[in-house]
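Shipment paperwork, digital attachment
Item: protein structure file
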Amino acid sequence: MTMEDANAAIKDTIHDVHVILERHGSVSDASLAAVGERMKELAQRDDLEEVYQAAAARGERLFSEPEGLQLMLSHFPETTAVHTHGAWGVMVGYRGNERYRQWVREDDGSEPGHAKLHLVRDVEVKPGDVGWWFAPPNDIHQQLPEEGGSVELILMGNPPSPTRLYFDLDADTYTEATPAERHYPGR
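Attachment content:
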């Protein structure tokens, strides 16, 4: 398989995702499950890491529309903070295993800096497993990779927000920051 083959497979996947979303008419459990099933085929390729490296060297993602779909290969070397992205998304496990946790807000969002979260999903993600989240305020999640880290193929409905919300579950608070500032709590 060549880089050209991989890039063609990425473009075919994006085309099919557009068709799936158009057919369903909205972002829903059914449409995102269908998108995830389509992405599983792409996640079986063993050359995505090579395409990722070439794209990263250019400062790009695997695929990016100016205000639309974003496809990336995301590496999680350690547990992330509980965070948002500002977009709906679909993930497929690519390498390694992790726990994926997702929350919803119980509060109404009216008090800046305060957030009471309720855990709604806590699942193991292995290569080929599919998961998704909805647009804000339903995009609160965390990755907890096993030793050695994990890699996910992730598709987002729009470019991720340059600043994100980072949650402190014990204090029922959040702060807004960039991923470089807060994504990995131990750094």
